[in-house]
Amino acid sequence: MLKRKFVSLVLVLLFVFSPASAAFSDISDSKLAQTASVLDALGIMQGVGNNRFDPSSSLTRAQFCKLAVTALGFSDVSAYGSYTIFPDVKNTHWAAPYINAAVRHPELKDQAIIRGYADGTFGPDKTVNYGEVCTMLLRMLGYTEADIGPFWPADYIARAQSLGLTKDVSLSDPKAAVKRSDAAIMLLNTLGAPMKGDEGGLLLDRVASATVKDSILLETSETDSSLADNEAVFYEGGSLNEAPRKTAGTLDKSLIGVYGTIVVGKEGDKVAVGVIPNNNKVETYTVTEVSADSIQTEQQTLHPNRDTNVYVSREGRKLGTFAEMWSGIQAGDSLHCYYNEYGALELMAVLPRVSSSAGNSFVYGVESSINIPAEYQIVKNGTVVDRTKLKKYDVVTLDAENKQALVSDMKISGQYLNGTPTFSYPQTVTMYGKNYSISDQAAATFANLELNDYITLLFDTEGNVAAAYPRNVISADMQGIVTNVKDGTTATVALFNGITLQDLAVDADELGSMLGSVVVVTQSSGGKAALSVRTLSGKVSGTWSIADSKLGDRKVSPKVKIYEEVISGAPLNAIKASDITTDTVESGQIRYTVTDSAGTVTNIVLGDVTGESWIYGIAVGERQENDGSETNFVKLKYWNGTAGTEATYRVLSLPGSLNSTPVGIPIGYSTSENVVNTSLSTQKLDLVDTVDLSAFDGSAGVRTKNGYYALADNVGVYISGRSEFISLQNAKSNYTSFRLYANKSAEEGGKIRLILAS
Fold first, then answer.
1. Angle at 436 between CA 434 and CA 441, to 5 degrees
2. In sequence order, what DSSP letters do the residues of 685-742 get, joined into one string?
3. In this structure, are residues 283 and 320 in contact, taking their beta carbons and an 8 Å threshold?
4. What mean pLDDT is predicted for residues 401-418?
5. Is the pLDDT of residue 185 over 60?
6. φ, ψ for residue 159, nearest 5 deg
7. Whole-angstrom Cα distance, residue 412 to residue 521?
């Protein structure tokens, strides 16, 4: 049963259903198109034939009576077509069953939806006017003259307006003819209105067998070719269904992302006919940078909880947590944030893109290539380049609206393990344990490929497979960063070319020690991935001017991925350009760069530039003896932004004297007791000053004898006497003396990273 909280949004006509029959050729307004779609799907108001809706034609009384009876859930009225009630509506008249049912059906006669004239006639072919339609809609909801008032049609029109039944129609004259477009909008408004009485429910319940609230349309067969035409993927109340939901034909891909209630029709196989939006908050952001603890957007910086649900379309039909999925979010993505009725973040989703250029992708430099119009701008990995930077096997997508050729050189190479329904013309292929949807255009490129061949998949700028070739024809650079490890058996690798390989089954010893490492991915004949750690070597020479997007003489992509390797061999940690407080980064602080085939810098590994790639806390070294062997551990207590916590690292040898020492440990080292971290160098924090409360500039900074220092975000305060961390606000309320520790001097960009209070 739909709750009343949906009513307000329904009344502003934000119903959006889209069955296969929704596309009427004579409707250009998107809102009217969606309105016609829902009524068509529910069998209430169909088109007039030849894929037309005829929105501008007027409705007759007979036609609107049919609409009203059907909207009340009475689609089978054949029992009422064998007799005549009104002399001008013989039993042979096409509308006789509906008109007779409105007058005689036991569940309808008391509502008196529509009446005849004083002379006993009905006037089936007379044009229905605005006052009559408002009256019939109110009677459909159970209202009587006693509820509304004696003055017809003024009282009826006023009540219809107050209930939102006339929202989005421009009629005001009671005698004005009602067009099909106006009737559709008013009917849909009425379907979402509450029946008279507190427990009346919605009129919609009469034509739906079930509803599923808090749902989001995520994929259709037009965005995921592994789905049948009558299937769709929904996020439903916190999870994805194990199997796709059956739908009334193919739901229009333009409606992907609608957040609301799935409506299941009463006819046929009880399939979903669409989604009614709820009035919960939905926000959309353009992503500029992503890291393991935040998302930088053009509007603001987001800090989702690690367990926030995340769906990334290009990663397959998988729902994960932010901790698992963050690396799959890319600069340039539209990120949709869905909030539940209580205002809590329910889901973050990167949905399949719907663009006017869909279907205009091709592989450059091969026989099937098409010409790029001379006036088109060439954009490769987000950067404008000249045509000489196009390479054979680049995937080009023509964007006619913006006169751009969007170029991608994303690709992966591996073993072709599965293709369904046929491997020579697949809808879905499996590589590295992931299923990729294949369009008809891309499927044609598999004609000469066999299962177990080593192949290369080419991707367009939206992450869709565009073509496949043998690996000996074109191969991918399969180096990237290990961003996540699970159970010591699977890993996620963010390739430098923009593709993320999620949950790879990896044949590797001590996989946990590879977290944050640059690796090269290969695949054995058994299907498992093999990772080999690569030593960072090679970079574009010169200084990086962040404002100019230039590193030496090379352009830097606006989608550039940035990492820090704070000490040699430490795990790489993703950072944002906004974390860098200087305008330029000197060559000595640049450790490694990756460029695309146009020479644009797409990945940069820095040294310790920002200070944000350390965990700052209190460290203690421990040695344990077991059966005569010695095992070394480093235990770190720290503030995680909301609470005190601790982590233990197994190491080959202890890094210096650690005895309740304020230090920084590089982010990303494994805390598994089964993994020995071969190097765990620490950063000694410098005592800057001891101050009282008056030195603090709120939570922004603090005045010291060595000058003004900024406070790190969510800086932790350690209470030695209690051996625990608390928040700065809590510490200010209970303590008076504060020992300040910084990672560098203020002139070098250092911040206060840890405070001891007493």
1. 160
2. PEEEEEE-GGGEETTTEEEETTEEEEEEEEEEEEEGGGTEEE-HHHHHHH-S-EEEEE
3. no
4. 89
5. yes
6. -70, -40
7. 10
Residue 464: its pLDDT value, please? 85
Angle, alpha carbons 175-180-186 (nearest 5°) = 75
Q: How far apart are CA 203 and CA 193, in angstroms?
A: 6
pTM attached to this predicted model = 0.60
The span from the CA of 304 to the CA of 100, in Å, is 59
Per-residue pLDDT tens over the stretch 381-407: 888 999 999 999 999 998 876 788 999
Helices (H) and strands (E) in the chain, counts: 11, 49
Helix (H, G, I), strand (E, B) or coil at 305: coil
* 516-534 average pLDDT score: 85
pLDDT value for 500: 86
Best CA proximity match to 227, nearest among 216, 217, 236, 212: 217
Q: Which residue has the tokens 């957007």?
A: 297
The secondary structure of 272-290 as a DSSP string is EEEEEE-S--EEEEEEEEE
Contact 408, 436 (CB under 8 A): no
H/E element, 15: none
pLDDT at residue 31, as a whole number: 64
Whole-number pLDDT of residue 13: 30
Q: Calculate mean pLDDT across residues 158-170.
A: 89
- Counting other chains too, the contacts that 506-513 makes at CB distance below 8 Å and 24 or more residues apart are 506/530, 506/531, 510/674, 510/675, 510/676, 511/485, 512/485, 512/488, 512/670, 512/672, 512/674, 512/675, 513/670, 513/675, 513/676, 513/677, 513/678
Q: Which H or E run includes 348? A: strand 345-350
Q: How much is the pLDDT for 78?
A: 86
- pLDDT recorded at residue 525: 67
Q: What is the pLDDT of residue 158?
A: 94
Assign 20 a pLDDT band (cuts: 50, 70, 90): very low
State how far the Cα of 483 lies from the Cα of 485, in Å rounded to an integer.
7
> Which amino acid is located at 198 in the chain?
D
Question: Which of the pair, 262 or 217, is modelled with greater confidence?
Answer: 217
Q: What angle do CA 462, 311, 495 make, to 5 degrees?
A: 55
Buried b (16+ CB within 10 A) or exposed e, 418-453: ebeeebeebbbbbbbbbbbbbbeebbebbeebeeeb
Rounded Cα–Cα distance for residues 71 and 187 (Å): 8
In angstroms, the Cα distances linking 594 to 608, 609, 752 are 19, 18, 33
- Is the CB of residue 350 less than 8 Å from the CB of residue 314? yes
| Of residues 755, 368, 429, 383, the one with CA closest to residue 560 | 383
Per-residue pLDDT band for 47 (boundaries 50, 70, 90) equals confident
- What local confidence, expressed as pLDDT, does residue 213 receive? 80
Identify the CA nearest to 214 among candidates 498, 5, 66, 387.
Answer: 5
Residues written for the chain: 758
Q: Which amino acid is at 78?
A: S
- Burial code (b: 16+ CB inside 10 Å, e: under 16) for 76-90 equals ebeebbeeebbebbe
